[in-house]
Amino acid sequence: MLRVFMIFLFFALWCTCSSEAKKPVGCFSKKELVDHAEHFMAKYLHWSHNHMIQSLEDPNSRTEPSCSNFKLQTSSADYNNRSVSPWRYRIDHDEERFPSRIAVAECLCEGCVINGEENRSYNSVLVKRSQLVLKRIKCPLNPDMYSFKVTMVKVPVACTCLRPISSQQ
Ligand SMILES: *[C@@H]1O[C@H](CO)[C@@H](O)[C@H](O)[C@H]1NC(C)=O
Ligand SMILES: *[C@@H]1O[C@H](CO)[C@@H](O)[C@H](O)[C@H]1NC(C)=O
């Protein structure tokens, strides 16, 4: 009896998990595709993502930070303002992808900001994370209709400061 119950439980859980993560299958018009994609992506994208894209697109908040004009602000809550390997974000656009806009980090300096100046004995390097995206593809039998391909992409999210690789200790 317990065994039957365990098997039942296994299938119940398996069904819930697989329906959670399942992408819409079939061919859709462009409009239907966008609706499905937004619904699907809502599980993976958080409010902070949209908020960040909006603030990056706001023309009033547009500053062009660079390595030479970067000022370390040790009282700031923002990691980027206290980092010795500062970065900025730009928006990567791809109309064939959902989400079509992704914020990607770019390091401001090659070296790191030590004692108020760039020191090339250190390296600013990008930290990337994997993100799930949907790619729009044409349906093979009907080129006016579209389908999805689920893909993982590596998105630069910040920079960190490293010592260059060296054989000496
Ligand atoms: C970080 O620095 C930028 C540029 O000086 C500034 O506009 C922003 O408000 C700072 N962020 C925080 C949370 O202090
Ligand atoms: C840069 O960092 C190295 C290693 O810590 C240090 O020896 C050097 O004095 C620094 N250079 C400057 C200009 O601060």
UniProtKB/TrEMBL annotation:
<dbReference type="GO" id="GO:0005615">
    <property type="term" value="C:extracellular space"/>
</dbReference>
<keyword id="KW-0964">Secreted</keyword>
<feature type="signal peptide">
    <location>
        <begin position="1"/>
        <end position="21"/>
    </location>
</feature>
<dbReference type="InterPro" id="IPR029034">
    <property type="entry name" value="Cystine-knot_cytokine"/>
</dbReference>
<dbReference type="GO" id="GO:0006954">
    <property type="term" value="P:inflammatory response"/>
</dbReference>
<protein>
    <recommendedName>
        <fullName>Interleukin-17C</fullName>
    </recommendedName>
</protein>
<keyword id="KW-0732">Signal</keyword>
<dbReference type="Pfam" id="PF06083">
    <property type="entry name" value="IL17"/>
</dbReference>
<dbReference type="InterPro" id="IPR010345">
    <property type="entry name" value="IL-17_fam"/>
</dbReference>
<keyword id="KW-0202">Cytokine</keyword>
<dbReference type="GO" id="GO:0005125">
    <property type="term" value="F:cytokine activity"/>
</dbReference>
<comment type="similarity">
    <text>Belongs to the IL-17 family.</text>
</comment>
<dbReference type="InterPro" id="IPR020440">
    <property type="entry name" value="IL-17_chr"/>
</dbReference>
